[in-house]
Fold this protein.
Amino acid sequence: MTRTTDTQHLSVLENYWNGRADREAGREGVDPRKRVHTDLLWREIWRCVGGRERLTILDAGGGTGRFSIGLAEAGHHVVHLDISGKMLTEARRRSRHVQTMRFVQGSITSLGVFEDNAFDLVLCLDAPLSFCHDRYEQALGELVRVCRSTLVLNVFSRLAIVPLGVPFDVKHYRRLNTVHQVFDTGTLEVTEELRRLQPSIMPSWHAFMPDELAAMLEDEGCRPVRASAPGALACLVEPETLREILDEPDLYEEYLEFEERYDASPFVRGIACPGGSGLLVTAQKANGTR
């Protein structure tokens, strides 16, 4: 098995996300579960903002501006960082009316362009940390370093993503293969063989257990304050029912409040929802301001 270098992995990531920039912004309109997931992340973001004005915010892996644009529209100073040039181009296009955004192309494994404690709030949502593959500890250290106060992470959940590998293994190997690797280590090393078997496969990644991520944060001097599996309940509800709920604002607000309660259960956090970005953790940096 040939392992990729850091430079090769970053190149693969950039190309992968460049190829998805055109459709990234519209996912919530296609899949009601993604809409719920995004709105749950927004609820946590606003909880962290807490009514404060003119925060300095880093959206690390901001994509096409799903969160950064709304925060800038609310008057906060936002740095939108992404590895994909095409994602940044789309985010710039969508935010032409906003004056308080700065765009930076780069990887969260190396945030040397930013000073220590540069941001009141650091967001790393929709799994950029997982896509750092075997450099995720380095990336987390960088995210904590540039954070002054609050850090919100959204990553792949290990036990949620393992079942997605079972059909792949059965189809291509007629035995369980990749799922053992992911279950034991959390990491999937995407080799040339895997790319040949499934050309659309995601780049190499790491999926976390809840206690694993909490321990890593504590080692970096952060105190986890909330954890959940955003969208876990929505993944168990029929999409047509979700669409009915989405059509009624009051019902939808009640649903989101209940989903937050459900998703925060430690039993649910362990399994999370199938697919990506199934684990959400908010942490407070030691001696950070709130």
Summary: The radius of gyration is 18 Å. The mean pLDDT is 93. The first helix runs from residue 6 to 18. The beta strands are 56-60, 77-82, 101-105, 119-124, 147-155, 187-188, 205-206, 222-228, 279-285.
